[in-house]
């Protein structure tokens, strides 16, 4: 289609011809127009030069009355006669169906217009995406459609590439370490990439609608606003503008900001788009590098030895001031020269200087540092004997040689300076108010100050060569062995982790004192040295003991009260008194650090108290509510909870609670309500049972089944597939109904027929149940895994076997569709009680059905086998044992786990 030259007709003329104008225009114009043929002729030349496909169609038959040259070219139509082609023959059945549908809908009016997008294919399978415009008109009482198709393939491809580009850009933006942003013309953020969380600690939603200045300290915001105002006024781009921002946690970071203006197509300025880069680390590195360079230069220039830097060609490229002194030459005389030029022709050992340099250079090239004596020539011609240390160093990507030159005089001067430095260090070392000792990796003390002798009450000879661990008691206050604990601490220090800790030491007279120790690692002349600072905190510990004594007295008072008291932070138990421990049956050790959820019978009660804390305590400072708490033995205690904030100004300080046992007050009422509820439940079930079996279904059911079986054996049924099918369905139905009646009778007996409970190994119950369902397990191929040892329980053995049979069959049924069905059976502990479980990897279920499945006849899948009574029987049996059963599942196809509790064995 691209071979036609582009032609752009007058849009108003096209409106008149094709009906593409406003609806109000069409309604006022077309009743008058009546689609005159003379107007078609006027536009034929224009249409034949158009790249769009124009076709005139006779409706409803779909005959093509006329088409433009672009249409003929696209479908390779050379010899065309009017009404010899149908539109569906060229445009395809799908396109024709859409047009005919719009035509049918438009017949109630004398004109209509429709648009849609479809795919058109030429005979050569050259397919395009086309935007179709179709107008329906009456031409001299003849219903006609004008079909216009425009190739939008390139447009769709561009849209796809645009979406792909946008997705790539979005992915790139969200994976960059830099924060991408956009602000509007008023400077408010309209977009912030997720990296804002990493850079400033804010989520993008927290920043959108605010200005960048809102995240800067006030002084910085004023400075940047001044710098940026001129740029923004002239809509100029900017780059690498450094600014200080305050993170959400209050820390400051240095940001490097670059941005470009966003200009709309009409030329309006609509904001800026840019990137923020956290350069805090870089700035710190640059600062450290500058300091390091300054320190290096200071060290370089102040060194007592001559230092030369040479390139690989052994040309001197730098030297320090001491070098000038040693050689008695200017910097210009040394830089660019070669050490051979600064040396006599022969060295004292008779070797030529140039030959010896070649040998040394070869060794240094092999990576072997060199230390040797060398004779140099001063500027005045005199000779000096020096010691040279030569090694390779890496500066950037360039390898250089560094030579350190020292003569005898300089060495003595250096030794003198070193002694002076050691004297200063010793003065500082000895005047410290804390003990300072140095020891090697073997924990052998190699030095200590006078304060160490004073605090430890020992002589220097008694300390030097000893170990800090030998100056300590055998065990530390936490009961750990001193040597084991000490070596563990030293290991951390040697791994680069300085340690601060409390420690007990022994004085020379045998008394023990408490100390606070700071232990770190030093490197001295490539030797690892550990430095310990020891501070006597005996007095501070005495004060702490006095405070603890006071707290013990208060604790005694609190523990003496019969009312339960405790403290929780974020609903985690921090402290309880003896009264509460006795009330609930748990020891403090069993409760401390645990969630208060362990005290409640269910999530609803737990959440109720949580609502009280939120609505009353956190608002008013105090609150109270009634709640049932679970005793360690599983029994429930009715209580009155009174709660108060530890600190009304700081909610994170926790909650103080008091607990009053009101069980006896509510027991009578609870028992009455429990009895009524149980009677109502049993009455309802008995009524349902009576209703089901009241008509004596079983007897006529057996009669139906018997006569049906007789009919099956007759020749009439045997010779008729239809009768065989019908009798088979009757027999299946009677079988299912008899099973239903049997299970209803079984359900009605539970609670009335009770076997004496006994101590029985749960493993024996499980084996008996597995034997009963072995056929089902074999047919489904399910694997049963016993995950834990099982305890002895005090139960009605027959009924619990029935529970396990139902649960295992249920698991096998709903895993039968899997290639590897799996059933796991085990027991865990919750709040001191054994909780048994049967877990499968089957179809699972939504949380909304967790309670429903235990209802009578409540089958989630009506088409599944079974009557829907099995889980009701399980629930009834477990509840008759005074325990509970529940199900947990994360959702469809994620499996189910049935949990239930049973009484523990009796003594």
TrEMBL record:
Q: Which SUPFAM superfamilies match?
A: ATPase domain of HSP90 chaperone/DNA topoisomerase II/histidine kinase, Homodimeric domain of signal transducing histidine kinase, PYP-like sensor domain (PAS domain)
If you read the UniProt record, what top EC class would you report for this enzyme, in one word? transferase
Q: Name one GO molecular function term.
A: phosphorelay sensor kinase activity
The record's section on Pfam families has: HATPase_c, HisKA, PAS_4, PAS_8, PAS_9
Q: What catalytic reaction does the record list?
A: ATP + protein L-histidine = ADP + protein N-phospho-L-histidine
Q: Which residues form the PAS domain?
A: 165-235, 292-367, 421-497, 573-603
Reported EC number(s) for this entry are 2.7.13.3
Q: Supply the alphabetized keyword list.
A: Kinase, Phosphoprotein, Transferase
Question: Which Gene3D superfamilies does the record cross-reference, listed alphabetically?
Answer: 1.10.287.130, Histidine kinase-like ATPase, C-terminal domain, PAS domain
Q: What SMART domains does UniProt report for this protein, alphabetically?
A: HATPase_c, HisKA, PAC, PAS
Q: Does the keyword Kinase feature in the UniProt annotation?
A: yes
Where the record annotates domain PAC, the positions are 237-291, 370-420, 499-549, 623-674
Residue intervals of the Histidine kinase domain: 692-906
- Give the matching PANTHER family: PAC DOMAIN-CONTAINING PROTEIN, PHYTOCHROME-LIKE PROTEIN CPH1
Protein's name in the database:
histidine kinase
Organism, as annotated: Candidatus Auribacter fodinae
Taxonomic lineage from the root: Bacteria, Pseudomonadati, Candidatus Auribacterota, Candidatus Auribacteria, Candidatus Auribacterales
